[in-house]
Design goal:
Length: 103
């Protein structure tokens, strides 16, 4: 999952394995999910789920506008999501202006 330095994870050179130094809820970055319930209604066009990195790069409004406009043009969902992720996925993690990595 990466970003080990932010998760309180180090390597044990003797056992050659990862060691968790912090409880997940105390780490800067955690694998503990944020879960929300949403009742969908007939007027909902889509539901977008993703990691926090997507919302670090785009606002809710930008995501809704982009996906909605592509759906209006009958672009296949696979192509919409590929295009979206191509605009926000990190290409160089050492870059000063890098975007977050997405899964």
């Amino acid at each position: 999952m990466g970003d080990f330095e932010y998760k309180g994870i180090t390597s044990d050179p003797i056992k050659n394995e990862k060691v968790y130094c912090l409880a997940p809820e105390k780490a800067i970055i955690t694998v503990v999910p944020e879960i929300r319930n949403k009742v969908l209604v007939a007027t909902d066009r889509f539901l977008l789920m993703g990691c926090d990195g997507i919302w670090e790069c785009k606002t809710n409004e930008e995501l809704i506008q982009f996906i909605g406009s592509e759906l209006d043009k009958n672009v296949p969902l696979k192509e919409i999501l590929k295009s979206l992720l191509d605009t926000i996925v990190a290409t160089d993690s050492s870059s000063k202006n890098r975007q977050d990595s997405k899964s």
